[in-house]
Amino acid sequence: VNRAQEILLILADENFDVPIFLDGMAVEITEIMLRHPRYLKNARRFERAYSEVYVVESRDGREKVIECLKENGGIVVTTSGMLDGGPILHYLSEMWDNPENSLILTGYQVEDSNGRHLIETGNLIINDREIKPKLEVALFDFSAHAGMDELHEIVKKVNPENLVIQHGDEEAVDVFKEWAV
């Protein structure tokens, strides 16, 4: 949530001369944000950025996007599911073998995810098949998550009676339990 929208704003500022497509849960989140402009820093700028993208609404729409990308180029902003699920797998299954294509990951890739596997090995699993993609892969950290040191500071300052952990690995849960003592 918010990463795809930040990317849309960056792309709008750069004024690329190619079509930009928005797909996946990013569409739904963007539309929710637009329904509540009072919570946005600059709603007008965000509305303008969104008005410049083509919204992908179906699997057939993805096929048309892929045709467009192959013929004219373009940019797809979509949810990635750390490359374990979501629309990104459909695009990658069609675009992985062209060295002129790029995949830009914009956040942390959790251990044992396809995204982490790609970063660590250079290989990707698509349709139960491990491949070595020819496209360029880059990782940029747009993550808004706090690191463990920052989280520890917050917990110490707030000193909560109860602490609810939304997600994390077992090691993180054990660390939080130690902090609570």
Q: Characteristics of this structure?
A:
181 residues, alpha/beta, three-stranded parallel β-sheet, two-stranded parallel sheet, 8 helices, 7 strands, 46% helix
Q: Brief description of this entry?
A:
Helices cover about 45% and strands about 15% of the residues.
Structure in words:
By secondary structure, the protein is α/β, with parallel strands linked by helices. The chain contains 8 helices and 7 strands; from the N terminus they run H-E-H-H-E-H-E-H-E-H-E-E-E-H-H. The chain has helices at residues 3-14, 25-34, 43-51, 59-72, 87-95, 114-121, 148-158, 170-180; strands at 20-23, 54-55, 75-78, 102-105, 124-126, 129-131, 136-139. The strands form 3 sheets. Strands 2-1-3 form a 3-stranded parallel sheet, with helices on both faces. The chain has a two-stranded parallel sheet with strand order 4-7. The chain has a two-stranded antiparallel sheet with strand order 5-6. It is globular, with a radius of gyration of 19 Å. The protein starts with a helix and ends with a helix. The relative contact order is 0.12.
Strand order of the largest sheet: 2-1-3
User: How would the global form be characterised?
Assistant: globular
Name the structural class. Answer: alpha/beta
SSE ordering: HEHHEHEHEHEEEHH
Mean model confidence by pLDDT = 90
Number of strands: 7
pLDDT < 50 stretches: none
Q: Give the assembly state of these chains.
A: single chain
Largest sheet: 3 strands, parallel
Q: Please work out how many helical segments DSSP would assign.
A: 8
Strand proportion, as a percent range, falls in 5-15%
